[in-house]
Amino acid sequence: MPLLESERYSLENLVDLNRKQIGRLLKLSEEHVVIDRAVYDPVYPNDLKIHKLLAKDDIDFSSHIPGYQIYPNYAIVKILNQGIRLLVRLLYPDLRDIPVGMIEHTKLRGQLYPDDEMNVLIKKWQDRSKTAKFEIAIENQKGVLVYESTVYGTIIKKKRN
Length: 161
Known about the structure:
By secondary structure, this protein is an alpha+beta fold. It has a single domain, classed as Thiol Ester Dehydrase, Chain A. The chain contains 3 helices and 7 strands, in the order βαββααββββ.
């Protein structure tokens, strides 16, 4: 089964991914993809840039605390989770399962509001044995750092030959 439109998986073709392509790679329906766009540059294979517009009617604004229009931490973690899964899928196309992640530290440095844009950089920093370390930074549309985190994930069940 092809990962994208083409029969052959090629990192050179994966530059600017939309929700539909992200869903296909993660084996999710488009309605469950929380990332608007992801940019992968094969020149920097350990980096993934993610973009998310925080619409006023986003379910996470209304389901957090009614009347309190600040994007909640758990919603940020959903986006980061999908981003890490996507980067792992791009780096290890034969991996059968997506790794489990553990957040080591998180620093909330600012707030995100309706109509803000999240610009996320996920960087695979280390890959030792079966454990990978990811560094994450999020800026808003003004370039203000609002979040940083370190996540450890276990790369498991590589495809058997």
